[in-house]
Amino acid sequence: xxxxxxxxxxxxxxxxxxxxxxxxxxxxxxxxxxxxxxxxxxxxxxxxxxxxxxxxxxxxxxxxxxxxxxxxxxxxxxxxxxxxxxxxxxxxxxxxxxxxxxxxxxxxxxxxxxxxxxxxxxxxxxxxxxxxxxxxxxxxxxxxxxxxxxxxxxxxxxxxxxxxxxxxxxxxxxx
Amino acid sequence: xxxxxxxxxxxxxxxxxxxxxxxxxxxxxxxxxxxxxxxxxxxxxxxxxxxxxxxxxxxxxxxxxxxxxxxxxxxxxxxxxxxxxxxxxxxxxxxxxxxxxxxxxxxxxxxxxxxxxxxxxxxxxxxxxxxxxxxxxxxxxxxxxx
Lengths: 175, 146
Hints:
The complex is a heterodimer. Chain A contains ten helices and no strands. Chain A folds into two domains: 1-94, Rna Polymerase Sigma Factor, Chain: A, CATH 1.10.1740.10; 95-175, Winged helix-like DNA-binding domain superfamily/Winged helix DNA-binding domain (Arc Repressor Mutant, subunit A, Orthogonal Bundle), CATH 1.10.10.10. Chain A has helices at residues 4-12, 16-39, 42-59, 69-87, 90-93, 96-101, 111-121, 125-135, 141-148, 152-174. Chain A starts with a helix and ends with a helix. By secondary structure, chain A is mostly helical. In chain A, 31% of the residues are buried. In chain A, helix 8 crosses helix 10 (152-174). The longest helix of chain A is centred in the N-terminal third of the chain and has 24 residues, at 16-39. By secondary structure, chain B is mostly helical. Chain B has a domain at 88-114. Chain B has helices spanning 3-6, 9-12, 22-40, 49-72, 77-94, 99-111, 124-132. The chains are: A mainly alpha, B mainly alpha.
């Protein structure tokens, strides 16, 4: 795995293509899953990943290397997701809960995992982001703070409330 | 139901799937995309420290030229002339000349620029009468002795 320092050296010597190729290889999957858990459907996740990578590619020469590259990429992806959830009209006709039940969605989990995903979908968008990033991706609160622009204390509180809600929803669904 | 359930590693596993070879295709596609894009987009939009200094120096130079032109157009010439006159005045004073003497120099200089009075042909009799005139017409005086 290449460090940020190595990627920075490549960029500073003009090897943007090399650095970006490495970034896609290194962080592409994580970014995809981060997006996919929020929008559920693969096609939308793919579109948003393409947008994210396009913005990262065009913005790479302006990246200051003061923060970690993965927090910057996550921030772009998160903005794309939130914009999609806020503005996409198809979500009204085809809500996220229905997407999860659709046969078209590529889902390979069991009943417990499906129940968990349904419980998570009942959270507000930003709380769902915090829960996913902490529970599934195990991102540190400090990094989440950089990505979401929220204080560590607020993120901890948000995750705590989200976990409580998810537990209650799971209890209602399974018992 | 408790926190133990959320701590179950099975629940933490990703339940979603992707089409076959999806990630390999994304990686290859973007490596090709960036290779094409790099050939047409080599510019760096970042402003370097050097270019910022160049911009500041250009601004200072233009400001200096503008200020010099402003001064040369005579907007402040009256002030500068007054300063010179005061300087000459103080310089002469320092040579030991009194303030009155120095002032008289300037007054004399100013008299040189006055226009001379027009010359007229005087009648000699009128001149004698004018010179003998005491200022008082004695005959017209009426002294009241009472």
